[in-house]
Amino acid sequence: MAKHILEMRDITKTFPGVKALANVNLDVEYGHVHAICGENGAGKSTLMKVLSGVYPHGTYDGDIIFEGQPVEFKDIRDSEKSGIVIIHQELALSPYLSVAENIFLGNERSHRGFIDWDATNLEASKLLARVGLKMSPLTKAGDIGVGRQQLVEIAKALSKDVRLLILDEPTAALNDEDSEHLLGLVRELRDEGITCIIISHKLNEIRAIADVVTIIRDGRTIESLSLDEGEVSEDRIIKGMVGRDLEHRYPHRVPAIGEEVLRVEDWTVHHPDEHSRVVIDGVNLSVRAGEIVGIAGLMGAGRTELAMSIFGRSYGTNITGTVYKNGLPISTRTVSEAIGHGIAYATEDRKKYGLNLIEDIKRNISAAALGKLAKKGWVDGDQEVIVAEKFRRSMNIKAPSVTSVTGKLSGGNQQKVVLSKWMFSDPDVLILDEPTRGIDVGAKYEIYTIINKLAAEGKAIIVISSELPEILGICDRIYTLAEGAITGEVSIAEANPEILMQHMTKDKD
Amino acid sequence: MVTTLKDATSFLTSRLRQIGIFVALLVIVGFFQILTAGALLQPENVSNIVVQNSYILLLAIGMVMVIIAGHIDLSVGSVAAFVGAMSGVMIQDWGFPWWLALGASLVVGALVGAWQGFWIAYVGIPAFIVTLAGMLIFRGLTQIVLENQRITGFPEEYRQLGGGFLFPGLFPPETNIFDWTTVGLGLLAVVLLAAQQLRSRKSRSRLGLDEEPKAWFATKLAFGIVMILGVTYLLGSSRGGTPIVLVVLGALIVIYSAVMNRSVFGRHIYARGGNLHAAELSGVKTKKIDFYLFVNMGALSALAGLVFTGRLNSAGPGAGNLFELDAIAAAFIGGAAVTGGIGTVVGAITGGLIMGVLNNGMSLMGVGTDYQQFIKGMVLLLAVAFDVFNKRRVAGTSKPRRDRGLGRGGSAKPLQDQGHALAATDTEGDKSDGAAGGGEPVQQGGRQT
């Protein structure tokens, strides 16, 4: 029998303008738990999507050899037929269906087109027992917690005769007890002969469970470390994840830092649906005029939730805490209040939250401060064009005219429109959430230059980013966030990737 | 030569969406003009088409605004009937003078709109449900108020709104070739149109915006002028002259077009319909927008109800049946997008006229209502299909792509967006899913049995 259940050879995957994977190799041995590690955006999820057929054969280069046979998956069903099942970090259970119905969704136990409910529920109970869940298969999936939902997902995978189970960030949303249980289950499955690939940010977990860890960085495989033999420390893994050249990717800047502009005290936010779950836990932070402050945190740390809850309570319920502007407490209950107090928030997801994609550039730029262009409720269209044209030139938005539709612009240019919108609202504090996500290197440099210019004008800037090099390249001071709490505050002089990663992977207590 | 021809063709196709609807109206008018042997464009018939469709057109103005915001209103027919009935009660039972009844009826319409707007904007029930309920509620109230009987015998002044003409008898047809009031109004409209077009062209060129070729601009303007003069000629030589409701309608079209294009309120409607989240995060008070949209729709429904009642001189329990579907069809034929964010008042009016001409032409030809329904349905379907194909062609995609992702994030995006979208998703940060939790209303009844 071959040693490897899976070999991925020279996998290359490009998106327009972005090379997501470049000659990635991955070997997974039979009966191993194989961890894949890397920063956000390193290409882990893309690699798993290639493997599971989300990106069908032909849309990538390279070969996949599964159980000794070269495979060419057309879609997810295809890969599942071969025994590869992926469980995404965002669970895909239907909340209104029972657990049993969910387990056999798309794979129903049926007889001549009619569901055999007895078989469904009986088999579901067996599967549930196998993953250690003591509950009725008739329970609605929406009525059980995230931890149990994760186990139901695994039961669903087991119903499909899984040979290779892929878990993408399985414990990101789980508490310690549930995580422990899940990892225990993964161990049991391994002993039963099910090979497992696990993507995780939690290094202690990886060390506890994985046999081999492969590190991916910038779409390339950096190294595979065997955890069986010899000591591989967390620091060693971190070094592999972050070690890259930071020179020349960030424009030079001499900070001129003034008075404190914004301070947030004791900021606590609860989940909008699960009201008892604390998402942001007693956060304190401040930012001064001309200062660029970074917020670094891993997936699920609550970075966007923090920013959006401050910006007009756009996220969360039961929010407590105080926001101070220039030393005085202010109310930011609605977005227009927040904008009125000179706060701007440029979202991480510009397509979903930032832009009206079917509308043109000028109307997007004026959207947050239309009042500045209007007299008695009537918009001065000429003035709007003049303003938009000014931004198109100064921000170097590459479009034939300000009447071009934003949906057709490239990611970098869309981001410039979003930034123009908020610059036109003339804020004192700019919160930039993943300002360079999904845009190419050249455009990133331009965005950094704009951020520097804004800081030089005396704006207070908060940059949220999952890319440590970016945070280290442009910020003056950095907060680290883990599980909704600030776990560290580091000045740029003392900061390096290892220190930040330690803070970011730290438990909050 | 070849290249200029090519340029011209590509220019024209790029404007197809903009002008297609007008071309379609002209083609349909020409078609029926031939088939009815000239009966369609007889002066009296043109006057008839205007008056017969005026209430649908009034509704279409409000409806397209509602649709641009991403909603729908199924109740307008019932509301129109209810207000018509109320006006009858006010005049006959309560002894209101006609002017007070008209004013009070508009207020009733606005209150009805406020009722529905409250449920939609502040309680968060989808407009489809609220107005479906409203359709039943106000139909029921109409019958209750009328005690299932008809009110007739409205005062002369009241009836002017639906059936009256401007300054009748000032230029009696016996002694004048034209109704000179109508001619004067027509010429005024031509002057205003030309002035407005020239001004906007001048300001565009001053601002350095993409200029239209001169020939194109001239053709467009000439086309508009010819249209106005044609209608002026026909109405001017009709017996009555200008219907009063046409003046009301014309004024409302101009006002609402300006509101949608140039007012902060109108721009917020487009922003809300184009991307609700982005609008909210830009400080747009989307609930307030939704609320006032329905107040406005209620008032316009009331006006439509008054016009209809006035024209028939009767308020009946079955009045306004299916008006909502005609108004909705007008908005969609006129280029409004089902997903919101796209549409124009002028487009909806043109769409309404297409439906009106179809109705009238087929009636003149003696086509039965059975076939009429069938043909109108096909026209609606094809008009929207044309729009969808056209959009897709412009976007450079050939077929809709089914997103194969397992996760919840999977949504069908046009192909061109896939690259960016995926590149963005790949960063696996704490995705918008978590952050969106509060904003996205949970689908009502996700499980259908």
Radius of gyration of chain A: 25 Å
> How many angstroms does the end-to-end distance of chain A come to?
47 Å
Mean pLDDT of chain B: 84
Separate helix tally of chain A: 17
| Pattern of helices and strands of chain B | HHHHHHEHHHHHHHEHHHHH
| Major sheet details of chain B | 2 strands, antiparallel
Helix content of chain B: over 70%
**And the CATH topology of the domain at 18-164 and 243-393 in chain B?**
ABC transporter involved in vitamin B12 uptake, BtuC
Poorly predicted spans of chain B: 396-449
What is the CA-based Rg of chain B, rounded?
A: 24 Å
**Tally of separate domains of chain A:** 3
Structure description:
The complex is a heterodimer of chains A (509) and B (449). With 509 residues, chain A is α/β, with parallel strands linked by helices. Chain A folds into three domains: 4-242, Rossmann fold (3-Layer(aba) Sandwich), CATH 3.40.50; 258-342 and 427-509, 3-Layer(aba) Sandwich (Rossmann fold); 357-426, no CATH class. Chain A has 17 helices and 24 strands. In chain A, helix 4 (117-130) crosses helix 5 and helix 8 (234-242) packs across helix 17 (497-504). Chain A starts with a strand and ends in a 5-residue tail after the last helix. With 449 residues, chain B is an all-alpha fold. Chain B contains 18 helices and two strands. Chain B has helices spanning 2-14, 16-35, 43-68, 76-92, 98-123, 127-146, 156-163, 180-206, 214-236, 244-262, 264-274, 276-281, 286-312, 323-333, 345-365, 369-395, 415-425, 432-436; strands at 151-152, 314-315. The model of chain B is unreliable at 396-449 (pLDDT under 50).
